[in-house]
Amino acid sequence: MTDVRLLFRKAIRIVALMLIPMPAVAESDADLAKQLSNPVAALISVPFQFNYDANIGANRDGDRYLLNFQPVIPFRLNGNWNLISRTIAPIVSQNNVAPGSGSQTGLGDVVQSFFFSPAKPTQGGLIWGVGPVFLLPVSTDRLLGAEKWGAGPTAVLLWQANGWTYGFLANHVWSFAGDGNRAGVSSTFMQPFLNYTTRDAWTFVLNTESTYNWNRHQWSTPINATVSKLLKVGELPVNIGAGVRYWAASPDTGPHGWGARLVVTLLFPK
Hints:
Blueprint: H1 2-18, H2 27-36, E1 44-56, E2 62-69, E3 72-76, E4 81-95, E5 103-107, E6 110-118, E7 126-136, E8 148-161, E9 164-178, E10 186-197, E11 202-208, E12 210-213, E13 218-233, E14 236-249, E15 257-268
Antiparallel strand pairs: 1-2, 1-15, 2-4, 3-4, 4-5, 4-6, 6-7, 7-8, 8-9, 9-10, 10-11, 10-12, 11-13, 12-13, 13-14, 14-15
């Protein structure tokens, strides 16, 4: 656990140094930054999202370090349609999240989404995508996952104009197989988002990532505020950002109060 915390602190210092304001970049870099705000953009991107949350557990003495590996890969189906693959693979290190649970470090359950999306926005500027989402029980520890297979629908819609991006992403997952001794999954995820990208490729993001557990009738709602900058590492575009999160709603045993977020995204434009 100590090694994980040291690595997390080093990552914060590195991101802070890289977020020092830089000279204005070309408009094409701003366009890339805007595409990152679009969950169904035809752009290969590989985000690494670091999250820290505290005050977890019945005694509020637990904490969690979470690295989400989130590759986004578009496939052109024809001249009118794209298929966008979005994967969330969580790597977790947590401590005292349940009474007597101790520490766990490993891989959590993977969430895999596919969006069928028109290649061009509608005449009104609407960008949208729909498809299936799957829950894959690949966790390396029973306290890091649900141990259930799940599936359901997912959808996203958004508009982009004058540097602004606003929209809504949602999915619902029902479990259909897995460990019979574990509780079933019936969970709705909702993510309204508002982003603004400047001409010199800074992006300001405000969103929530709300999850409603229909079995327990409980909300988990972190509010996230981040700022990021697109820059070049050699010829590779990289978007680096940092911000804070506040848990507006959480189960008694969930996170409370303030947390932190760091994001490093590698871009592979055509």
